[in-house]
Amino acid sequence: xxKKYLTLVLCVNMLYGFGQKETDSLxxxxxxxxxxxxxxxxxxxxxxxxxxxxxxxGVNYQINKDVFTFRSNYIYEINxxxxxxxxxxxxxxxxxxxxxxxxxxYGKRFIFYNSALSVSVGVSSNLxxxxxxxxxxxxxxxxxxxxxxxxxxxxxFKGEKRRFRVLYGIIPIGKPTSFGRSIGIKLFGSLGNHxxxxxxxxxxLGSHKNY
Length: 211
Prior knowledge:
This protein is mainly beta. It has 2 domains: 1-29; 31-207, Porin (Beta Barrel). Helices cover 12% and strands 61% of the residues. The protein has one helix at 2-27, and strands at residues 33-45, 51-63, 66-76, 98-111, 115-134, 137-157, 162-166, 171-177, 180-191, 196-207. The longest helix has 26 residues, at 2-27.
């Protein structure tokens, strides 16, 4: 009789333990790590085809320490012979040399309390428009090619769930959330027929870690 009683108690405790683990796992579910970033910086190609202001946009998704990124970068070079372009809103850049890049990257991202460091490489489609002088005559060229993009990122973001703030962080809205801003530095570029390298400031929006 005692053996049957002990066996019953043991079974109940085991079932309770498994049930508690399932309940705990439900409570420990966290948000996905997904965020967008916006780049403002400067770039230069290794052979001088194009150099100037760089504007970029990226979407990032992280699983464990693996990060997947889609990015688009655009390099504007100052137009030294703008002429009629001077009447436009951006006379310094409109009509100058440029490079447009669309890229998919994979890398590793290491998260600390309120910061993260990541490094990624991938494949990109690049379109380069530039001017070169041959025999004292200016000629315009257009090159489309596949390249190997890379980037090194460092981000700072909030360490704990807090209410999102608008108007430069003055007014909090809603409940504490994983959604928030980030700021950081990005070293980036690509290797291909026309290499380029750049450095800029990254501004982000999204969930930057598991909270």
